[in-house]
């Protein structure tokens, strides 16, 4: 991995915030624009009940040209115009901010104003995981399970 300055790490941490904001917007679109059988429970935050359902507008994509694919504990969103990709954890509301090292790398690589950050990682999974582990030691991320981490919000305590 290329050496990361404090400014670059701060930019990566800000990208994590951007990921979460976009992910929340996309989950909102998915809930509103698809015929989810468990919609009332999903609106309460039970995102694990989200499934691949037909769009209410009979189109192929969510508004703003977002393709989605719910699979297992995740939903992959891809913008067919920009190529931006987000792999979003489902489960509870907080899980939207969960970050898998490789999926987060793909987000950086596919996001126009963040692509330069992806260039720091020659081994996308391994080096991003090393960064996540280092950020956990600095109390900036919390380890959730496996290789999944979440950014700790200011004034938030670690969930360990």
Describe it:
The chain has 160 residues and is of the alpha+beta class. The protein is 38% helix and 18% strand. It has five helices and six strands, in the order ααββββαααββ. Strands 1-2-3 form a three-stranded antiparallel sheet. A three-stranded antiparallel sheet has the order 4-6-5. The C terminus is likely disordered.
Distance between the termini: 28 Å
Total of helices: 5
Q: What does the largest sheet look like?
A: 3 strands, antiparallel
Strand segment tally:
6
H/E series, N to C?
HHEEEEHHHEE
Average pLDDT figure: 93
- Binned, the helix content reads 25-40%
Structural class: alpha+beta
Describe the structure in brief.
The protein is an alpha+beta fold and 160 residues long. The protein is built from 5 helices and 6 strands; from the N terminus they run H-H-E-E-E-E-H-H-H-E-E.
Q: How are the SSEs placed, and which strands pair?
A:
Layout: H1 6-33, H2 39-43, E1 66-71, E2 74-79, E3 85-89, E4 98-99, H3 101-110, H4 115-118, H5 124-137, E5 141-145, E6 148-151
Antiparallel strand pairs: 1-2, 2-3, 4-6, 5-6
Helix pairs in contact: 3-5
